[in-house]
Amino acid sequence: MPESPSPNSQPNLSTTTETTALSWRKDLLITLVCTIAIALLLVHYDNFDAAAYPDQELAKKSVFEVPRVNSRVLHGSDKIGEGQLLGPEDIVYDPKLGVIYTSCVDGWIKRVRVNDSMVEDWVNTGGRPLGLALGHSGEIYVADAYKIGEGQLLGPEDIVYDPKLGVIYTSCVDGWIKRVRVNDSMVEDWVNTGGRPLGLALGHSGEIYVADAYKVS
């Protein structure tokens, strides 16, 4: 007759482990199936037609209107040389002297002291000074639409000085950006933009940035 297991005998470890593993896999499978089912219920795409926008809404006045003149733009600023500078075109600041130079429509290059706003008649070119540039030693280079370059520069607009190369770049009305050597005033055809170069700026590594009225977007 087979012997009955003793009350103190240990259960089969292998059978217990297999039962636990099957139960864990079953629970995982049920959880996974439920998660997918819920996701499918939540993610449901419906095709719909956009509602027509009422035409009258487009004709309504906008809620916010931008003022043509912002009275707060110059809030807190100081006006220098008001009434003493006729049609100023360009401006350059000399930090060593603490003065501002500006070119005016009447041919004058005016000098304005920053500390007291005193305006001085510095020099009159007898032409139409436009662009100004400050040289390495405080000299002022002037792009005069009527006088500069002795016929080699046609209607120069702006001017910029490169102290590393010792050259001046100026933009002309015929599309040329000319380069002028300071030491001997030699004028070179540097590059033609094919448009109307106006403003010039010198970059950190000597590159020249150009604002062209016809080509820059």
UniProtKB/TrEMBL annotation:
**KW Membrane (keyword) present:** yes
The record's GO CC annotations read: endomembrane system
GO MF annotation terms: hydrolase activity
Which residues span the membrane?
28-45
Its keywords, alphabetically, are: Membrane, Transmembrane, Transmembrane helix
Q: Which Gene3D superfamilies match?
A: TolB, C-terminal domain
PANTHER family, alphabetically? ADIPOCYTE PLASMA MEMBRANE-ASSOCIATED PROTEIN HEMOMUCIN-RELATED, STRICTOSIDINE SYNTHASE-RELATED
Could you identify this protein by its name?
A: Strictosidine synthase-like 4
